[in-house]
UniProtKB/TrEMBL annotation:
Annotated InterPro entries: GNT1/Glycosyltrans_8, Nucleotide-diphossugar_trans
Hydrolase as UniProt keyword: no
Full protein name: Glycosyltransferase family 8 protein
Gene Ontology terms, MF aspect: transferase activity
PANTHER family: GLYCOGENIN SUBFAMILY MEMBER (PTHR11183)
Keywords: Transferase
């Protein structure tokens, strides 16, 4: 009996030691963040040199996607933000003609994106296990086919429509890599990860690589819920260049660590509205344009106001978009289906 008790006590002690080692072993510097650096994120002199030697602005593009009408205002706002930061790259909008109305396309392209129709790529395994709102996301892989355009794209930065540009990021076009993205982060126990977020990506289009990706679908093993993001993480697992958080200001970063967010914010190039979207309803429906401010105010109150500044910023950019591109939006009003936006 005494021996059994001693064995149990020893087992408990060893388990506690193991748990303590497990907990401390995987703590990231980001979990204990200190704002120590005293240097800029980018060496601007080197950037100017590299852009001259390695890139031609006409061969670079910023690309986004539109799979449904509800995201059209977001694309317009993103386009305006890109013009504000003076990117030299072309703006290209990939859209699925069967799922996007003429009025939504007019609104989305009002601030400068040039529409480019693409065929929907159906998810593997008939979409089994995919989160319903991600069922169209495999269409994003057509980014790799833009080397086939009459004016081929040699380097591109992909940005989800639920984002805004805060500062110029043209330095990315000089990267010598095939693929780069920002590590993902979660507000829950997963925290900081090595997996990357596919909402902002740098890549070099390559139609042969696109075909190889499609061929890899049957053999690829990855969590299907996250659709193309999980597939790309598996495909580029060892080869993806991990970019600084400043290139994808995922709201989950602020949820996980407001301190890290504060340390990154002054250098942030792109803000990504992941957890809360101020331009669609909570049910993912279209928001009439004359009620957009109401939706922005509602979004600002979510998460106990954690993202109030970010929601209000999107609202200000949207007001600018409506003002600056009023003439283009007037032309959209002539389309029969535009009245659904209440504008």
């Amino acid at each position: 009996m005494l021996f059994a008790g001693a064995l149990c006590a020893l087992s408990l002690v060893l388990n506690l030691v193991f748990i303590n080692k497990y907990r401390t072993r995987f703590i990231s510097p980001l979990d204990n963040y200190q704002e120590l650096k005293q240097y800029p994120l980018v060496n601007t002199t080197l950037v100017r040199s590299n852009m001259t030697l390695l890139s031609k602005p006409s061969e670079n593009a910023v690309v986004t996607t539109l799979y449904s009408d509800s995201y059209a205002p977001a694309v317009a706002a993103l386009g305006h933000s890109l013009r504000k930061v003076d990117t030299l790259a072309r703006l290209i909008l990939l859209y699925i003609p069967s799922q996007v109305s003429a009025s939504a396309l007019c609104l989305a392209s009002s601030s400068g994106f040039v529409p480019h129709p693409v065929q929907r790529i159906a998810p593997p395994h008939n979409g089994s296990g995919v989160t319903p709102r991600f069922l169209d996301q495999y269409t994003k892989l057509t980014l790799w086919t833009l080397d086939r355009l009459p004016e081929p794209v040699r380097a591109l930065v992909y940005i989800d429509a639920d984002a805004l540009a805060l500062r110029n990021f043209d330095e990315l076009f000089a990267l010598p890599y095939a693929f780069a993205a920002v590590p993902d982060v979660y507000g829950d126990v997963r925290g900081f990860t090595t997996n990357f977020n596919a909402g902002v990506m740098f890549l070099r289009p390559d139609s042969a690589l696109f075909a190889a990706m499609l061929d890899a679908f049957p053999a690829a093993r990855y969590p299907r819920t996250m659709a193309e993001q999980a597939f790309l993480n598996q495909y580029f697992a060892t080869d993806a260049l991990r970019l600084p958080y400043a290139y994808n200001g995922n709201l989950a970063l602020k949820s996980r660590s407001p301190h890290v967010w504060s340390g990154v914010r002054s250098e942030m190039r792109i803000i990504h509205y992941t957890l809360v979207k101020p331009f669609i309803t909570k049910k993912w429906d279209t928001v009439p344009l004359d009620r957009m401010q109401e939706r922005v105010d509602e979004a600002a109150r979510s998460y106990s106001g954690l993202f109030r500044d970010e929601m209000e910023y999107w609202g200000r950019v949207w007001v600018e978009t409506r003002t600056v591109y009023a003439q283009q939006l007037d032309e959209c009003r002539g389309l029969r289906s535009f009245n659904k936006y209440g504008f």
